[in-house]
Every structure is written in structure tokens, then in C-alpha cells.
From TrEMBL:
One of its GO terms (molecular function) is cyclic-guanylate-specific phosphodiesterase activity. Gene3D superfamilies: 3.40.50.2300, EAL domain (3.20.20.450). This is Response regulator receiver modulated diguanylate phosphodiesterase. The keyword Phosphoprotein applies. CDD domains: EAL. It comes from Rhodopseudomonas faecalis. The modification 4-aspartylphosphate is found at D61. InterPro entries: CheY-like_superfamily, Cyclic-di-GMP_PDE-like, EAL_dom, EAL_sf, Sig_transdc_resp-reg_receiver. Keywords: Phosphoprotein. GO terms for biological process: phosphorelay signal transduction system.
Amino acid sequence: MPDSTIVQPKQSVLIVDDDPIQGQLIKDVCSRIGYAAVFAQSYESAAAALTSHRFSHVTIDLALGERDGIELIRLLSGLPEMPRVIVISGCEQRILNAAVRLAHSAGACDAVSLPKPIELKALREALMVQPCDCKSMRCAEPRKTDVITIDDLKEGFANGEIFAMFQPKILLTTGKLVGCEALARWNSPKFGMVAPDRFISLAEEAGLIKPLTLLMLREATELTRDLLPTVPGFSAAVNFSATLLADPTVPEDVETILVDRKVPGSSLMIEVTETTAMSDVAKAMDTLLRLRIKGFGISMDDFGTGYSSMSVLAQMPFCELKIDRTFIKGCLVDQDLWKVVTSAVAIARAYNMKAVAEGIEDLETLWALESIGCHIGQGYAISKALPRSEFLQWTDNWERRVRDSLLRIPERKHA
């Protein structure tokens, strides 16, 4: 006699829509591809379903009556594992795009939108994409409850637990390696691998930001010195904080490090965020000009994320504009993001600066950026950040193993 127990398929979908006909349409598509589906006609019934079931996908109609789909996205953000979010609405595309961005900021590592009336093929394709398991390095780190103190950081710094990792930067037109970004990492016996967003602010409070930055500079210039004979023009980028830009001794400290290692000033790119530059414009301008006079490059990092990007760009002596990853990710499916990216590239070229895109996660995005004249790219599509020894090995293998596969694609698509 067959087992009568109902076994829930691995993929289950919560359909949230105040229109039962629309809900049934989505449910039919789910059935055809072997997914279990639960229909909820209101926010309240959806919330009740989420307390008793774990769903791999949630389709959300933005207009749900008294409580809209945005409230539901906020509710989903509190779940231990956020499902793949499919936003469905008859609202204009810009609203759909904004809802997807909201889902991403709420913790969804994967979200898409579909306009009404729904195209069944597009719905099926959206449902067939599996939700991210959040173990990928591309996704945000899990929330950590460990409290790190200034004393922990001081001890870690004194014990040599903080070091640089290097993410390659390539010329998009040729695939040629042109540089890297030095990124601080802390391998703590107590806390494990600690990301910089958890300890850089502590370094500021502890008075460690200057020695930490100089450590990044020394490690970056040592790598650069080793690569220059085989990679002419190679440059390493290092992030500078507002504290450093207010220190009048910094230009000489930087120059000393490069002179000691016999590395030219053109092989260093100093990355400065807009917020950093605007914290004290007069002091920042003083330091940045002196650094530029000494031959160092200055990059405007995280372009577009602040309130006065254009003002800073016009005032400061930047030679590179770095487009923030929040605009690059999803720019091929979000026309609003694509407009920001294309405008940023055009602005960089108008100012005779190099346009750099960070956070390139797939080859289609890489090709699209190259097609609009973006000069340089970095991101997981090229390589994650690597320790020094692995970076040198990656460099040796790059041309043979990767470059041809990047560039021998005849058709390059972009939004």
C-alpha cells in the first residue's frame, strides 16, 4: 500500500496576491515544474504561512490592499534564510526596479521583478532559478554577534594578524592585468576571518588607522615591485581615510615607502571616498594635491553613493573614477542602474579620467561595460581578492587560462 504521507518538494513557493485568478495562474506554473505552492491573499495570511513553512521562492504582488508588498519584504528580511523574491506588479518599471533594490538591501541575495500581465515564460524562468544559499563569498557575511573591542584589535595588530589581500584589475578592452586593490583582512584566532567593515572604524578609534594603512602600502608596493618587470605599468590601489588626509606628514610617509622599495609614484593609486574628501575639504585638497604632485594617482572611490559627487569631482585632482558596486550589480537588468553606469563612464571620459567598475560578477556585465568605454574592471568575474602568493600564481596563469575565454565572445550584450 503506498505511503499516504504528503512529502513537500524541496522547492516550494508562497504566492502572495490579492487576485485569486492571478494566484491560480502562478500556482499552475509551479505545478507544471514540480513545485509545491501555497496561495495567500493578504499580508496576514502570508505572515501566517511563513511561520509554519519554509519557502524557496516567494512571489509578491506589491498592491495587496491595506498592507502592501513592501511590508512583506520587510517581514521576509527577518527570516533565518530569505527566499528568492519575485516582485510582481502592474506598477511602472521604475517602481519594480526600486522594489527589487529594496529586497536586496533587506538581505535577499537574489530578487527579480515581473510586470503584469505576467508572461508565463518569464515567470517559469524566474521560478526555475534556485535561491542562493548565502554561502557564496559574493553574498553578505552572516550577522555576527561577537563583540570586537579596541583591545582585541590592538592585540591582533601587534601579533601580525592583519594583512593585505589583492584583487586584480584588468583593462577591459584587452584583458591585460593593469593593477590590483589592496584590501585589509584580519585572521583572528578568536573571531576567525574578520572583514574590514568590522574593524576599520575600530582602527580609527584606536589610533591605528595610519599604521594599518602604511602596512597596506608596504605590502602593496612589495607586490608591485615584484610584478613591474613582467607587468609594466602595474599599479596597486590603497584606501585612505579622512584621518590620513588631515595628516600633513602623510605625503612624505608614502613617498618614503615607495623610494625604499624603488617603486615609482605612478605605481600607486590612492582611493578616497567622497565622504572622506568632504570631511575637511581644505585639508583634503592640500594632501591630495601634494600626493598628485609627487606622481601618485588619486581615485574617487564609491562614485555616486554620496550627496555631492559632482562637486567633489570638480574640485579634487582625481585621475580615476571608480563606479560603486551597488550600481554595477544588476545594471544589465535594471535600466535605472544602467543609466547611472553609462553616465558615470561618460563623466570620467569627459574629465580625462580612467573609469573603473568594481563588483563585476559575470562576463556579460564585463562585456557590456567594455562596450560603453569603461576602461578597467575588477570583481569575481575576474578574480576574488587573493593572498600575495596566490596573486602571483594567478598572474602567471591569467593570460593562458582566462583572458582568451573572456575576450573571444563575438556577441556582447548590454541593456
